[in-house]
Design brief:
151 residues, seven-stranded antiparallel β-sheet, 28% strand, globular, Chitinase A, domain 3, 2 helices, alpha+beta
């Protein structure tokens, strides 16, 4: 006879991780006096801070091409895992980037800079990213400049 215990599902694990991420992010925002400037995106646990407001009225869709300069690190760590701020500015189709960027980038406009604090579930979740030395469930901190937005 098998036990009546419930197996953890991916969904259960994601909920537990989201709660843990929320605690870490809120503590970070408090410890760094960012509570008044950071805005949460639709109760997702992701926060954004507009550093420089851009201009224009571009509409963002999944097929929007964004040209960006960005720097990313694990929240609270000074080591940058990726830095594309100087020189090379790649373009990405919005629908092909992590969900945290899909949710956050539309809060700014062309020429603007934004900071995104992305919980692990809206980044790479439980999957480590060996190319970037990111562990599983990494909370990411991005600073992004929107150079161009093309539909």
């Amino acid at each position: 006879m098998s036990g009546c215990g419930k197996d953890n599902t991916l969904e259960d694990n994601a909920r537990v991780q989201a709660a843990a991420d929320s605690i870490i992010i809120h503590k970070y925002l408090t410890d760094n006096n960012l509570n008044t400037v950071a805005k949460e995106i639709r109760k997702t646990g992701e926060f954004y801070i507009i550093d420089t407001v851009g201009t224009g009225t571009a509409l963002f869709t999944n097929s929007t091409l964004v040209t960006v300069g960005f720097k990313g690190s694990i929240l609270g760590q000074s080591n940058t895992f990726i830095d594309n701020m100087a020189g090379f500015h790649p373009s990405f189709t919005l629908g092909n980037v992590i969900q945290g960027w899909q949710l956050g980038l539309p809060f700014n406009k062309k020429g603007g800079t934004i900071r995104l604090i992305v919980p692990s579930g809206y980044a790479y979740g439980p999957y480590p990213q060996s190319d970037y030395n990111l562990p599983a469930n990494a909370i990411l901190d991005f600073r992004i400049k929107l150079y161009d937005i093309t539909n």
